[in-house]
Sequence to fold (344 residues):
Amino acid sequence: MSNTAPEASAPVALDHEAPSFYVLDDHEHHHEPGSSTMLGFWIYLMSDALIFASLFATYGVLSTAYAGGPTPREIFELPLVAVNTAILLISSITYGFAMIAMQEGKLGGTRAWLALTGLLGIAFVGVELYEFSNLIAEGATPQRSAFLSAFFTLVATHGLHVTFGIIWLVVMLVQLGQRGLHPENQRRLMCLSMFWHFLDVIWIGVFTFVYLLGMLR
Amino acid sequence: MNEATHNHGHHGDAHAPGEMEGHGSRKGYLIGFLLSVVLTAIPFWLVMTGTLSTQVTAIAIIALAVVQILVHTVCFLHVNTRSEGGWTLLAYAFAAVIVLIVISGSLWIMYHLNTNMMPVVQTGMGS
Fold:
């Protein structure tokens, strides 16, 4: 036993040299809790993008299956869509300002920008529900044609994501009020930032491929 | 701001663990916002006024949407070659490839299925 001790210590010494292949991480050899959250959340968003891809593909395939019902040109109101697009775009920049206030350590500024973002999100969902109720009142219900089924599925899935983003945002406002800008809350706000901006990217696809191309049809 | 958050070699408590490389400056967000306002306004204007022919308009608004998605990705989502050691960009590129395959593949197959099996073919864009 006594003569194996020097041999056992040799691999340990080697282990300290080994991790040098990780060039970017050379200043931290341990993983802090939550260090992989951002990448994990990003991969969730990419899988969410695949859900939307399948819904976009479904809509693309069914977009001319009117079944004798209304066509996009007859039911879409572009001014309303333009207003909604503007609301979501402005909410992106207000969230950006919340992140900047967070980086500067300003709790009040962060909460104020977040609250404004949440109000814009509520306005977006409100306008969308108004549009849906108008369509349904006109008889353009999801049951009317495959085109309308695909339309409601795609747009409402996006709207549902925005709704959950608003709920998350309200939770963050409460947490910020109780505990302030500690690292965990900062991490959560960065995840929500990715989520919110990701939904804006999806909306670019919606207003281009559903509404604008629909009006050209 | 970008540089300040990047060079944190001191394990400072001000930074969240696992922070992505910088979360943009005020300038970056404003540039992204102004670009996306322009890139949103042009397609809406093209469709609402009908300045160009239908086909040119369709191509133009799709191209503008692609550019705007890239602007949002860079300016708002901060995807670049450095964030998370490049894994963010890799996942993004992989997702983009899958999205393109799913959408274009579905449209391609179903269009030909319609052409070959339906008695009446209604073409969307050309008419």
User: Anything to note?
Assistant: The mean pLDDT of chain A is 88.
